[in-house]
Amino acid sequence: MAILEVRNVSKRFGGLQALDDVNLSVEEGSIHAIIGPNGAGKSTLLNCFVGRLMPDTGTVLFQGKSLLGKKPHEINQLGVSRVFQTPEIFTDLTILENVMIAAFAKRDGAFSFNLFGRVKKETEIRDTAEKILHDVGLKEQLTHSASAMSRGDKRRLELAMCLSQDPKLLLLDEPTAGMARADTNATIDLLKEISATHNITKVIIEHDMHVVFSLADKISVLAQGTVIVEDKPENIKGNPKVKEAYLGEAEGE
Amino acid sequence: MDAVFLQFLNGLDKGSAYALIALGLTLIFGTLGVVNFAHGALFMIGAFCAVVMRKILTLESVVLSTTEKTPWGDAKEIRTPYIETWFGDVGTTMIEYSVIFSIFFAIPVMMFIGVVMERGLIKHFYKRPHADQILVTFGLAIVLQEVIKAWFGANPIPQPAPASLTGSVDVGIWLGMTAESLVYPLWRLIYFAFSAIIIACTFAFLQLTTYGMVVRAGMADRETVGLLGIDIDKRFTFMFGLAAVITGLAGVMYTPILSPNYTLGMDFLVLCFVVVVVGGMGSLPGAVVAGFLLGILQSFAAMNEVKAILPGIDQIIIYLVAVIVLMTRPRGLMGRKGVMED
Amino acid sequence: MFANLKNNDKLIMLGFTIMVFAGPIILAPFGAGYPDLLQRFAIFGIFAIGFNILFGLTGYLSFGHAAFLGVGSYSAMWMFKLLTMNVIPALILSVIISALFSVVIGYMSLRRSGIYFSILTLAFAQMSYNLAYSVFTPVTNGETGLQLRLQDARILDAVNTSGSLPSPSLFGLKLSATTVVEAFGMRFQFNWGFYFCAIVLIIMFYISLRIFRSPFGLMLRAVKTNQNRLNYTGINTRPYTLGAFVISGVYAGLAGALLVCTDPLAGAERMQWTASGEVVLMTILGGAGTLIGPVIGAGAIKYAENIFSKINDTVLEGYFAFMPETISDFFVFIVSPFVGEGWHLMLGLIFMLVVTFLPGGLVEGATRITGWIVSLGKKSKSVDANGSTEAAE
User: Fold this and answer.
1) Cβ-Cβ contacts under 8 Å for B31 (sequence gap 6 or more)
2) What domains are there in chain B, each with its CATH number?
């Protein structure tokens, strides 16, 4: 069954057709990668899933319900979590508090006027947070400030925040962007581990093809605003259309 | 109709002051990205430049008279400004026109103050959050205000306009109306003309000179311009000085209209921030347009006919406009999208 | 050990309560032990604690909170005029009215953030201030300020036959009553008005402490750090910030009501934007985002205002009398612009220095100094340890 369905989505910025009649469907429980060269419209598409952008035409359905016009927090409350290109965390807070906030959002909803509760006494929330942090392999002192962490650890923390909400769908926006090879590999391993322990549908937006081949069950290749190919990773590799999209001019010479 | 036109004219002088101050504030915003709460203080310092200049020109020699006596029987003091002793009638004329001379005095003084402020304090706050910039410049505004108060006292110091320029002009006649139907103080017209010239010069400088072009490019993209090997920081320091000069001159020329007082800065600060917001943060034409617009609106709101329908509107009109603009169009009338928005 | 102390809420509350109740004794040697000033410490402490819940936790810098202070004052005065001189109804009404005001102003202002938010609050506050002076004169009595009058209704109070104005009381206990104790060569003044304000201060401090420790407070701190992430984490930030805004508005209203409980006169000048600036100064000076900082900041500024503004040249000459005359004249000349009439100059300078070098305020300063001392202690210990290992080798 498809958990996320994108139907005929188009988006135009002035003279630029960023998305042109995109159709996609993400199977529940799968890891679906959306790849494409720079400027193919990947980020635009993602922003249509999370409530930041409104497509000109078409619909985005999550479990049969439209996501369009919903605010980011409403979409998250439906069970869609996202990871940003550069890790977005609460740098002034401790590592543990970062994850606890996500867990609170899951338990108490978008707003709760919990003025006199004590964060300290929320043992359940704390235990969940600690367990998840252990799962993603964050070995730092949990009561330390999150500001001094390495980029890789910030990515782990951000993932932990998403996982603590037990989302139905996890959106990953170029999770390895700007990383060195070793860090990239570590991130891929981490994502594999998580997939093994947490059965969460994932959509990975990626520029780097190699990252997704070992992870994805299915790959959609986006070029110039449209899906040119949608297939299993092994079939994508040799596909001439994909080669052309990526290499373009180089092929022509 | 005449009444409406008179209100329009009445709004012009206030509007001119708003436009000049807001122009200075926007230059600082646009070039340096700094929210300067000490900007009102610059206006006040400008006004006190006029006070200082007049004091200097009227320094007096005191001679005890041998013939005349005071009612108490002491020898009467004869006070003669040195400048009259030295230059005779020319000296008298100089005192007469002290406001005009103050302009030439204020330009280097304001430039100096602006550069010192930028180099000494503001530059350390480029990378700090806007809240910190607001707070530190707010502190500076208090300091400047208190320094002026310590030197010049708490009372307003009236500054007369030159006698030949204090009269009124019958604007009505120029516009083909009956005589005496529309009389307007001459100095206010001069103030309007003066600010129009300053505004025109500023825009010409930014649009027509290479220096201005580089600064505008720097406003749009500081780093790239820096990469071209141009020392943009130095130019921005100069721009801060220029903004201080513009604001200071607005203060100098405003002294005959409103006697300078140490609270002048804080009084105008809130108003000119409102003007900048209404015009659109970072938009120079916006600041000018909004300055005149709000000045004129304020003057219309003060009409008895308007007050009869909306009591108290004259007190709040500016703030009301600011709230409405911010609610419906946060980028202001002419601002670019996304400036200073989080 | 310090960390434990810092996080033990019961100890914090105990220490705070003792300090506040002993205020008249502790501060007497500093010349600050008189009721009028002590009341101001407590009242502006409440104002700053409330402001800190908004600014310190969420980072939203409001330049219009004095408006709520003024609204609180006017509401309390009207309760005194119409109903009774008992302070309890006055406090209740001021809380309700200031809450209503802050809901409306907060709802609109919080649609924008950053400097736009600051300007919106400034605009609203200036509107309230200007209207209080003009159109709302029937309610505010304009420039004269709202005062008690003999012919006021006061329907719950017994008919006043004394011919003098009544004063605010707590169930018959006059707040102006003061017990003076002379001991150790000093005068200690225990004033009911102060103790009433002190109790309110302690309650409000406790509420603020609980907010700091609550999930609600955690969300507010998250708003300050990264509002975008919070939205994508499923939190609707608007009600949180509005909640903080209204809470801080109520604190301000309560402070305004207490001002007229101790001195029954409400003027519009306390709503001016520079008065809003003052509470910003207090919070920053003490330490925004810290629990105790705002109280310290409010105390420091009110103390400085009362003490330094009373120092004039004659007093200064007394201070420097031990020096030769020319030198003492020089010192008087240097110092005098900063005290007396000009104490604001010093305030502005200190504030600039704090924002520039000590963004965490006095509390951060104190923490740094303790940290420095502790690390010195540790260093000497570790040197010892190294020394002994070397000796062993």
Assistant:
1) B215, B218, B219, B236, B239, B240
2) 2-56+98-328 (1.10.3470)
